[in-house]
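Forum: Protein Structure Q&A
Topic: Joint prediction for protein chains with partners

I've read a bunch of threads here and the consensus seems to be that you should model interacting components together rather than docking separate models afterwards. I'd like to see that in practice. Below is the full input, 760 residues plus whatever partners are listed. Could one of the regulars post the assembled result?
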Amino acid sequence: MSNTSVIEVNNNVTKMSDAPIIEVKNLTKMFNDFVAVDSISFDVKKGEIFGLLGPNGAGKSTTLRMLSTLARPTKGTATIGGYDIIKDDTEVRKLIGIVSEKMIMYNRLTARENLVFFGSLFNLPKDILNKRIDDLLELVQLTKWKNAQVGTFSTGMRQRMNVIRALLNMPQVLFLDEPTLGLDPQSSVEIREFVKKLNRENGTTIIVTTHMMVDADLLCDRIGIMDHAKIVALDTSTNLKKTISGADTTILKLEIGNLSPQIVEAIRACKCVDAVSQENSTQLKVISHGQEAFDSVIDGVRAADGKINSMENLQPTLEDVFLHITGHQVRDSADQKIPMATHRRFGSQPQGRIR
Amino acid sequence: MGAKDLFSHSVRIAWKDLTELVRNRLGLVLLIVMPLFMMAMIGFIYPSSTTTISNMPVALVNQDQGFYNTTSGTNSTIPSQIFIGYLEGINDQAHMLILSNASTIADVKNKVQGGEIDGAILIPSDFSSSIISGEQGNLTIITDQSNPTIAATLEAALSATFDQIGTAIAEGNVQNLNATVPANNYLAFVKPYTIQTEGVVSGNPSYFNFIAPGIMAMTVMMSVMTGLPVAISKEKEDGTMDGMMVAPIDRLSVILGKALGQTARGLLQGFIIMGLAVGLFAVIIHGNILLVVGLLLLGVFSFVGLGIVLTSFAKDQETAQMMMMTLMFPMMFLSGVMFPISQMPWYMQDISKFLPLTYASDALRKVMVLGAGIPDISTDLIILIAFGVVMIAIAVPLFQRMMTR
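Posted by a regular:
Agreed with the consensus. Here's the joint model:
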């Protein structure tokens, strides 16, 4: 996507203040006897990118729908920007934008007509709305297609439309429901970069649901892992990974050009090192602990005149974290999708998920 | 949120719906073709009273054995010959029938089954003997039960023809009986009364006059009742409904806007029907056009509530379509749109009293065909308004709940 900064930057917003913009308390949603979301509570800080990670049917989308006032909680509530999502839903809606898993646009209308229609629901003055639409179209490089019906667009173009549609009211909080679903890697990167830029330049708080580990890892400041209607873990990606390796274990992969037994001994001698194993003639795997693990190991190698060609921090992946916490793989558990009354899916939809 | 916002958002949504409609070329064509078909088909299938039959294949079964005069020793079939002569004479002018001969009733049955003829005229064996003996001659019309419409038409046409023949013979008889009666008065002796039909407004009665207002009312009102659930469930399925629902607008404006769009579509169709009725089917509108439009809008109002209730129940397009069909057929047939309510059995008449379409089509018919004014249709108006208000009172809370499940 374009690098030109066309989004109106709101300078009053500083990235990530500690004040929570979203406070969720015991939010519960039941469909008859089926518990889709089971009494979850969490806060999202202003300017944060918050991820809800979990398999299909874990309750991510339902949580998002409740927060965006599209579904009414069975129990509990939440506030966004101090407004209650049940009592002050109209106020909440002024603050939010939603990029749904389904593309919200009318195929028979042109790109511009779609944006004008949705924009007009926000009571923006006409000239401001038109300017904003032009800017947003330019931002995602759809300007030259603005008078083409969106039914003729490719999936990538449609998703870009879908994202800028949610930005028409310059929302303080943007909800993204599986924004990269069904997109090729190139388009996924574009969407991720765009979201980051939006967060950085406008201070937009972003809540994103995904079942893609990469998305969550690359995008989110904090991640809530959802499984079976509950949030089973919530922290930064780094901290989540720490939980499985116990304390603060660091796994290092070292490539040393002039690897010798002396160097190996020197590394072993470091206090922080728990184990060293030689992978091949130049590679070592070092398992260490403590905050100074990196420095100590490097010092050890340097002291023995070793030359470090490369050094890699082998972190446990989010996948490992998920496995550790839930006891099952992400893709194994795509067992049951919430029977959402308003969401009937048909397989022919290009953006439909494959289950 | 003020009423101004509610209205402006509704108009936006309606405008968006209409833009979509205009972009759908095929749908637009069907929008015009559908009422045309409906008018043409219904109008021609149920012919009006002025329609005459022509060239209907009918068999003549002459089983007359004549009257044997024992004194002269001669057999006379003169009465049946006279009858056939008259029949052929009339038919030569009117070309109603294509007469063929058949020997027996079994033969007639075969020919009807084979589709060669639509019916038969049977002259029984004692025809001549009865008449010469001074009794009434018996004639039988044999009809095809599998086609009641043709059977009824044939029966009516033949009865009229036989009546005409009978009258002609009777006139001759009067002359023979009493030579003092002036020739001009023979007919008055046989048929002392003549009957003439005249409507309260000028013009010939036509079935189109009857159905055009009904179909107009039905199309416009159905567009809201059925179009609304289909349109809304489509948006829910596509996910576009979420786009409107996350905007800070009154949720009522979503349904209002949708109803407005459907109403505009329905009115357009209604006017197409009116145009066709006037232009192609020679329907004359005697009433005030503004009152016609007003009545159509009132019809829409009375159906909006029902449409919203259905919307709240229809979870997807498929269900909405099925609900539409289920409700549409009874309404079409029970509301007196196509058949007069007074022709129905009493229990059906009772059901039709609960359908708002009954009152809308009745009022519209009175205004369009008879040129009635507001005072003449006040009962209809009151019932339509009451129905609309009650349904909306039920529908709005139901809809509000449905929108945030």
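The interface with chain A takes residues 1, 5, 9, 12, 16, 19-20, 23-24, 236-250, 315-316, 404-405 of chain B (CB under 8 Å).
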